[in-house]
Design a protein that fits this description.
The complex is a heterodimer of chains A (227) and B (365).
Chain A (H helix, E strand, L loop, with lengths): L7 E7 L3 H25 L17 H29 L13 H14 L14 H26 L13 H6 L2 H32 L4 H7 L1 E6 L1
Antiparallel strand pairs in A: 1-2
Helix pairs in contact in A: 1-2, 1-6, 2-4, 4-6
Chain B lengths: L6 H7 L4 H14 L6 H11 L3 E7 L5 H6 L8 H7 E6 L7 H14 L5 E5 L2 E2 L8 E2 L2 E2 H10 L3 E5 H6 L12 E2 L1 H4 L5 E4 L6 H14 L12 H4 L10 H6 L9 H5 L69 H38 L1
Parallel strand pairs in B: 1-2, 1-3, 3-7, 7-9
Antiparallel strand pairs in B: 4-8, 5-6
The chains are: A mainly alpha (227), B alpha/beta (365).
GO molecular function (chain B): 3 iron, 4 sulfur cluster binding; 4 iron, 4 sulfur cluster binding; electron transfer activity; ferredoxin hydrogenase activity; metal ion binding
Subunit structure (chain B): Heterodimer of a large and a small subunit.
Protein name (chain B): Hydrogenase small subunit
């Protein structure tokens, strides 16, 4: 049990390198803008200048699409960049265990039980803990690919013989376009739920572990605490 | 129909003049998206080539494809299109019936082995040995397999033959399947739609006859010329979509002004067909132009979308739930649950932290 009152945080550790931080904030911005425009595209609740409006002067849906697709590209490029950085970055830039490895689950349950107040966790992870790892794996690593595949496949419907027309297999696997729209939207909501949990746990770790979790996403440094 | 003259000879016998004939060729060339010289190629083909023997089968369907086809409005209408090919068997259009008719089909098949076109309308039931659709005492499944074996190519007319349409919709009691699920070793042209546009059907036949090969097909086996674009992308109401001006109910001002029907469940953005450029009834109109959202009748599984409730909603409900829950409601609920969970967890965290700190202070003493 750590002595919370007299915590001595002696060492600062460079955890998040600049490219990782840039990725994080670009990703955050993309997700926010993609979600707002995506919600509008699927269910346009705005009614611009009802009755008196002219189609020639309004371009709500057009801009929503433009932003959505532009940030879709950015989101994907950013993802690919992050994937590259996993190979060349420091030890915190990649997973050391994967969900299909036994070692992953041993540590996972340890952390999960501590989140459920059933066990007191001995150490604070400097990088991602295994529960966070699983969430990032599911929602970000796999989720981003899912969003990109379904998103660009739907974009490719505009020109099925063009470049993104090669993603037609998505419709063969996931069902007709109507269904793919639904799945894309469902995953988007899933990502929002992830963001909520992510924000909460980031705050919680910052408050409880007192190791600078929140500011580390700007400075890159965390404090390594010793008893 | 023993003598197989050319199409043009046939027309001349029927009193069609050359001017009308060339007009037809030009319209066909244009609707197929071919170049300026193509109308001469079409004319030449129709003048010199023997008429193409066609067996036109009707399986599990409503015959709306034929109804559509007979209403093709191009310069040389109904009977001309019908005579361009040598239509040797077609239950709906032929006078013969019973054994006599079945005999004709068999004869055509044997005389033109490897050379005739098999046109299929309707899905094929497969449950219980295919007894749910029988012709002359034989199941549709048998007939299709036999006649497909010697066919040069198969044209699958309409959504039934292409993707099963309403017969294959949930729960599909007869086990109806489209042609492409049964025949896999023959070239198949899929011409979906419920029904397909008359001019599209005429265009496909003209292409096959003119070039003696199938039209260029997309990944789903549909002719690119007619199914290469979404209805949405050539929609006359598209400007309202981009502007964000949507009809909210069928009697609102937007509806009267002709705004976009997206929120009324329009499937134009998901549907490949020629409705918004060729239009129907000789270019008169099409559903969206008439004020009704597209139901996506040429797309696979359009009946089953959203558990069969998709015609007037755009956002799908989440499948597998007994009560209909819109995907946004579902998603927002999930996010709400996450927020509630976070709140509870935060509360518990505060309490446990307090008690831990209490213990520690006691220990310190």
């Amino acid at each position: 049990m750590k002595d919370m009152k007299n915590l001595k945080c002696l060492r600062t550790v460079y955890v998040w390198e600049l490219p990782v931080r840039i990725y994080h904030w670009v990703n955050a911005l993309s997700i926010v803008l993609l979600m707002i425009t995506g919600l509008y595209i699927g269910n346009p609740l705005l009614r611009p200048t009802v009755v008196t409006g002219e189609a020639a002067t309004n371009f709500f849906m057009g801009y929503a699409f433009m932003i959505h697709i532009a940030f879709g590209y950015l989101f994907m490029a950013n993802y690919l960049f992050r994937l590259y950085w996993a190979f060349v970055g420091n030890q915190y830039a990649r997973s050391h265990y994967w969900p299909w490895q036994k070692a992953f689950w041993a540590e996972f349950f340890d952390v999960l039980l501590s989140y459920l107040f059933l066990k007191h966790h001995k150490d604070e992870y400097l990088g991602h803990n295994p529960v966070a790892n699983l969430a990032y794996f599911g929602f970000i690593m796999v989720g981003s690919v899912f969003m990109a595949l379904t998103g660009f496949a739907m974009y490719g419907e505009l020109h099925p013989n063009g470049f993104f027309g090669h993603l037609q297999f998505v419709f063969n696997v996931l069902g007709p376009s109507f269904n793919v729209h639904m799945l894309h939207r469902m995953m988007a909501w899933g990502i929002v739920a992830f963001v909520v949990t992510h924000l909460y746990l980031a705050l919680r770790h910052d408050m409880f572990a007192r190791n600078g979790t929140l500011s580390s996403m700007i400075s890159g440094y965390k404090f390594h605490c010793e008893d | 129909m023993e003598t197989r003259g050319t199409f043009y000879q046939h027309l001349q016998n029927r009193g069609v003049n050359r001017r009308d004939f060339l007009k037809f060729c030009t319209v066909m060339a244009a609707s197929l998206g071919l170049g300026a010289g193509a109308s001469a190629t079409i004319a030449e083909a129709l003048e010199t080539k023997k008429r193409l023997p066609v067996i036109w089968r009707h399986f599990q369907e409503c015959t709306c494809c034929t109804e559509s086809f007979t209403r093709t409005q191009h310069p040389l209408a109904t009977d001309i299109i019908l005579n361009m090919i040598s239509l040797d068997y077609d239950e709906v259009l032929m006078a013969a019936a019973g054994h006599q008719a079945e005999e004709t089909a068999r004869k055509v098949m044997e005389e033109n082995k490897g050379n005739y076109i098999l046109a299929v309308e309707g899905a094929i039931p497969t449950n219980d040995g295919g007894i749910y659709c029988c012709l002359g005492g034989r199941s549709a499944l048998d007939v299709l397999k036999e006649e497909a074996k010697h066919a040069k190519a198969i044209i699958a007319w309409g959504s039934c033959a292409v993707n099963g349409c309403v017969q294959a919709a949930h729960p599909n009691p007869t086990g109806a399947v489209p042609v492409q699920k049964i025949i896999t070793d023959k070239p198949i042209v899929n011409v979906p739609g419920c029904p397909p546009i008359a001019e599209v059907m005429a265009g496909v036949i003209t292409h096959v006859l003119t070039f003696e090969r199938l039209p260029e097909l997309d990944s789903q086996g549909r002719p690119k010329a007619f199914y290469g674009h979404r209805i949405h992308d050539k929609c006359n109401r598209r400007a309202y979509f981009d502007a964000g001006m949507f009809v909210e109910s069928f009697d609102d001002q937007g509806s009267k002004e002709g705004w976009c029907l997206y929120k009324m469940g329009c499937k134009g953005p998901n549907t490949y067909n020629s409705c918004s450029n060729l239009q129907w009834n000789g270019g008169l109109s099409y559903p969206i132009k008439s004020g009704h959202p597209c139901i996506g009748c040429s797309e696979t599984g359009f009946w089953d979308n959203n558990g069969g409730q998709s015609m007037y909603n755009h956002l799908s409900e989440v499948p597998g739930l007994k009560i209909g829950v819109n995907v946004d409601t579902f998603g927002a609920t999930a996010v709400g649950a996450a927020i509630a969970g976070v709140a509870v967890h935060a509360g518990l965290s505060a309490v446990t932290k307090k008690s831990l700190e209490k213990k520690e202070t006691e220990k310190d003493r």
